[in-house]
Structure formats: C-alpha cells, structure tokens
Amino acid sequence: MKKGILLLLLSLLSACGGDNNSSQSPAPQPENPDTPVAGITIPVVVHIMEHPASDDSRISVAKVHSQIAALNRAFNRQNDDLSQVPAEFQPLIADMQIRFELATTDPQGQPTTGITRTTQNIELAPEEYRWGYRYLHYSALGGKDPWPRERYLNIWVSDMRDRHGKVSLAGRASLPGNPPEEDGVLIATLAFGTEPPLEQGLHLGKTTAHEVGHWLGLKHIAGEQESCNVDDGISDTPLSSSNYGGMTPSHPSSTCGSADMFMNYMSLARDESLLMFSQGQKAAVWSVLNEGGERHSLLLNSRNTAAD
User: Fold this and answer.
1) Domain presence at residue 12
2) CA pair distance 195, 192, nearest whole angstrom
3) 160: domain CATH number?
4) What's the domain range around 265?
C-alpha cells in the first residue's frame, strides 16, 4: 500500500479472501463466562450495493433471509451437520446465544425492511478508498454510509469478482474498536446466503458467520501468522499453523502435534467444512458484548428494546 494512513486504517480490519487470502485479525479477548441467560438479538441492516453491469448484484429478499437464517444456525448450534464434528471436539461445540434479525426500525425511528439498495459508483472514490472496496462504506464516495454500530450490525454485499469471474475477496470485517465509518461486514454477492447464484465452497452462508466472528472479536484459528508459535488467544482451539484456506481437510489433520480444529468457523476452509464455534470463543465474544467490552452498547440497546 502506498500511503501510511491507509496502512494504519487497514491494520484495524480483518480481510478473508475467497480461497486463501487473510490479513490481520483481532487481538485476543479474555475468556469471560458471564453470558446473560437470555442472550442477545442483534438488528441487522443489509446494504445491497448494486452495479449496473452485474445482474448478480441485485440480490433478492429471499437470498437475504437465507443468510440471516444461516447466521442463526451457526451462532445457535442449530446447523444439521454438527454430527460431522469429531468426537474429541463435540463437548466444545458452543451455542453462542446470539441471534440476528433484520432491523424493523431505521436510525430515524421509521419502519424498515432492514435492507437498503444503492447503485455503487467507484468513479466517485479516491484511489486509496478503492483498495479493499473501502469506498462502499461511504455514501459520498459512491457507497452507503453505515447505520449506527451501537444499534446495528451493518452488512454490505457487493459483487467482488476478478476478471476471470472468480470471487477475489469473499469477505472482510471491521474489528471491535474500528473507526465507526467502516464498522461492519463486507461480503461478496457469490458468498452471501444460500440461494443461487453462489460460488462453490462459499455456498452455505458460512463466510458471513466467519466474518461476523471477526466483528465480534475472534481471530483465525491459526492466529495472524500461521505458525505454531502464534495462537488465536482461545484456550480450547488447538494450536494450528494453517487456516486451511480454500481446503476441505479430513480429520485428523495436524500441523502442531495435535488435531487441528479446522471445522471451526474461524478457519478459512470451504463452507462445507465449517461446523462450529467453541466454548472458549463464546466466552471471548461475550467479553466484547458484556460491560466493559467494545460492543457492549449492542447488549444495552437489545435489553432496552426488549423492555419497550
């Protein structure tokens, strides 16, 4: 990257490529078992970034709903492939107690479907905002401004294919503490939801679960450097020197002397291999949501909404 300020901003982001591209991940969070019994429901706004030259960018409402359903399965231990988790990891499968629903009220208090549609215009964006599709987060640069992160999870969906028609960036997430102007998750149209069109390996809505994991403070299972000397900060995810980018590994696969938890949502394996979050990851996420955490406002607003 050419500019120091851009490097500084992007150091606060986590980017996950369609196959094997990954960059900086969140700092480890302390494990905190203080999870409210009722859990949390997070309102979601999906910003569909349409492009005149891409029919696939005009995403249907059904496709949006399929992604919300996939998120809820992943974060509430409800996916029907949990039997594929190896026996040694079965006791570690976590119900994260986090549900997602499309927002019904916009920031001005008006009724909403939780879906916005914008015709993106990259021509309005300076060069430094085109890298990583950052311009999509700014209305003035041809994208769409986020809704307040204290109340919503923002998901931008855009056609991010290369000249060969393959997904060049499957997803990217802002981390807790990221500047509010770009807070949320960016997902490729061909990796979003479970309704076609989709790219094989990104077709089960699990890329979004992975990126929301980053948004809630989780790192890749192999940490930042894919080394046995680098950890993800979670005690019950074994050391691994591979994030299994674009792969469909079989158990047992070992890179650091013990079986790798490649079926964890925070690996970079293909969607069909991603099956679970761990109990340690649940504790880390709730340390971000609980009092003192960087996304505690979501929990406070969730409680206030429930009390209304």
Assistant:
1) no
2) 8
3) 3.40.390.10
4) 29-307
pLDDT at 303 over 90: no
Catalytic residue list: 211
Q: In this structure, is residue 7 part of a structural domain? A: no
Give a yes or no: residue 8 inside a domain.
no
Cα torsion 57, 61, 62, 66: sign? positive
Cα(237)–Cα(91) distance, integer angstroms:
12
Q: Taking a C-beta distance cutoff of 8 angstroms, is the pair 226, 242 a contact?
A: yes
Q: Is the whole-model pTM more than 0.85? A: yes
Closest by CA to 205, choosing from 304, 114, 70, is: 70
- Give the pLDDT of residue 223: 87
- How do residues 62-81 score in pLDDT, each as one tens digit? 999 999 999 999 999 999 99
Q: Find tokens 């955490």 and name the residue.
A: 293
Greatest alpha-carbon pair distance for the chain in Å reads 55
Q: How many domains does the chain fold into?
A: 1
Whether 207 is in a domain gets the answer yes
What are the C-alpha distances in Å from 100 to residues 12, 32, 113, 236?
Answer: 24, 22, 14, 25
